[in-house]
From TrEMBL:
It holds the Pfam family LMWPc. It comes from Microbacterium flavum. This is Arsenate reductase ArsC. CDD domains: LMWP_ArsC. Residues 6-131 form the Phosphotyrosine protein phosphatase I domain. Gene3D superfamilies: 3.40.50.2300. InterPro entries: Ptyr_pPase, Ptyr_pPase_sf. Keywords: Arsenical resistance. PANTHER family: ARSENATE REDUCTASE. Transmembrane segments: none annotated.
Length: 135
């Protein structure tokens, strides 16, 4: 029996909003029980400040995070790969669990529009964690 933690990679185009919020929720809800990564096919210069504000409202600080480029190594090192609109830019490896979460892009949106995206991501993360942690 292995004690290896399950690992999840969240991928969106800019790694500035949806994938960063999802990673923040995993860190908050699963603590150190799950290894979490996020990346983008075309990373932005910085995290979306409205996404940061939306997460701050629920007590989660993602200000220290930086958008990262999606690498083949990150996909290979992850048990589950959750994509959010990156389409064909996401590499595919047999044996990995893939899910595509269709979510509105928070880029250019105000806080009123980003809150429901944040809350939908939380629900999806909770369901994902229940599955991968067997809860």
């Amino acid at each position: 029996m292995t004690d290896q933690k399950p690992s999840v990679l969240f991928v969106c185009v800019h790694n500035a909003g949806r994938s960063q919020m999802a990673a923040g929720w995993v860190r908050e809800l699963a603590g150190d029980r799950v290894e979490v990564r996020s990346a983008g096919s075309i990373p932005a210069e910085q995290i979306n400040p409205v996404a940061v504000e939306a997460m701050r409202e629920v007590g989660i600080d993602i200000t220290a995070e930086q958008p990262k480029i999606l690498t083949t190594e990150a996909v290979q090192a992850s048990d589950a790969v959750i994509t959010m609109g990156c389409g064909d830019a996401c590499p595919f490896f047999p044996g990995k669990r893939y899910e595509d979460w269709r979510l509105d892009d928070p880029a250019g949106q105000g806080i009123e529009s980003v809150r429901p995206i944040r809350d939908e991501i939380k629900g999806r993360v909770e369901a994902l964690l229940a599955e991968i942690l067997g809860q």
